[in-house]
Structures are given as structure tokens and as C-alpha cells.
Design brief:
Ubiquitin-like protease family profile domain-containing protein, Adenoviral Proteinase, Chain, alpha/beta, five-stranded mixed sheet, hydrolase, thiol protease
């Protein structure tokens, strides 16, 4: 998938290994993971894709504009958490995510403290109401949801594919959710994407 992303997008998007977040939660591995992350130079990137596997379930964390000031209007630091299983309660990951992000800032010697990190919005776009239109016309936004019990990994790949295709040059909270509206995906496209995934040979 990464090889299929255009070179210009690869200059401002990077990704973490799919096991880094889980390894970070183990005290014996935390230092090594932060060293690996430092080599990624994420504060010079617009978007960082962080696959998360916890409790045998995959979700996708997207770090947006972490190198920018929290007061920025054009490039708003924020985090998106996309989950294909709403009942898994993605918000339960928030304490670990905020600790993870705080430690990344600390490892880079940046001035942001715990209080500032707590103010970075963590958006979990399960259902998003559009308040800029009449109440009678309110529409909801929902990320694609899995139908079976073992599809979450495929959905994370699909979220990465969709986000990279549509990610705006500058992510501002004022224009959120940008391309992630009701029609940002279709079940037909989702099924076609899954069919293209190569099965893993055991």
C-alpha cells in the first residue's frame, strides 16, 4: 500500500509499525519504541498513521500536525481515532494515547506539558452531527463498521487507503470533517478493496 502512495504525499505522511503502540505499553520496550519513533521525524510531517492493536482488536490513530502550535488556525494539531467496531469502546484507548503522545513530545525535548497535550482534540468520528445546517436536515457521519468478528485489520487498511486519498493539505478543526462525510465511502468500494488484499500465506 505504501508503495502505491504518490511520492508527493509520502513527503508529508508517515506511518508507525503496526506493533509499536502495543510494545510501547510494555515497560521493557517503551524506551526502544520512542527511539524508533524519533527516527521518523514526525514533527515535520502533516499526518502520522498509527495502527493500534489492543485486546485483539485493531483501530487506526491518525496524528495530525503535531509539529504545529496548539493556537494555529491553519494547521490544527489533533488526533483522529477510527474504529470499525463501535461497541469495542474506542474511547477507552484515550488515556494510553495521550500518555503515548506526551512521551513522544518529551523524547523530542519539546516544551509541551501534560496540560497542553490534554487539550489536543481526540476526535472519534463514530457519529458526527453537522451543526452548520438546519436541525431538520442534520446528517450523521459514520466510519465503515465491520460485520464479522475478525475483519478489523482489513478495515484499518481501508481507513488508511481512504484517508491518504482524501487528506487535505492542512487539517483545520474549522473545516472538519472535510471529505469524511456520509458519502466518503461505499460498501461496494469497501468490498472491492477487500478483494484486492492478498491473503497471508502461513
Amino acid at each position: 500500500m505504501w508503495r502505491n502512495i504518490s511520492e508527493d504525499k509520502r513527503t508529508f505522511i508517515t506511518f508507525f509499525d503496526c506493533l509499536w503502540f502495543n510494545l510501547y505499553t510494555k515497560a521493557s520496550c517503551k524506551g526502544r519504541v520512542l527511539t524508533w519513533i524519533k527516527k521518523k521525524q514526525i514533527f515535520s510531517k502533516k499526518y502520522v498513521l498509527v495502527p493500534i492493536v489492543r485486546w485483539s482488536h485493531w483501530s487506526l490513530l491518525i496524528l495530525c500536525h503535531l509539529g504545529e502550535s496548539l493556537q494555529s488556525k491553519l494547521r490544527t494539531p489533533c488526533m483522529l481515532l477510527l474504529d470499525s467496531l463501535e461497541k469495542a469502546g474506542p474511547r477507552c484507548l484515550e488515556p494510553d494515547i495521550r500518555k503515548f503522545v506526551l512521551d513522544i513530545y518529551k523524547s523530542e525535548g519539546r516544551a509541551e506539558n501534560k496540560e497542553l497535550i490534554s487539550k489536543i482534540p481526540l476526535l472519534v468520528p463514530k457519529v458526527l452531527m453537522f451543526s452548520s445546517i438546519k436541525p431538520s436536515l442534520l446528517k450523521s457521519f459514520q466510519v465503515p463498521q465491520q460485520r464479522g468478528g475478525e475483519e478489523c485489520g482489513n478495515y484499518v487498511l481501508y481507513y488508511i487507503n481512504l484517508f491518504v486519498q482524501g487528506a487535505p493539505e492542512n487539517f483545520s478543526m474549522d473545516d472538519y470533517p472535510y471529505f469524511m462525510k456520509q458519502n466518503w465511502f461505499s460498501h461496494e468500494c469497501l468490498e472491492a478493496f477487500f478483494e484486492k488484499l492478498e491473503p497471508i500465506e502461513m
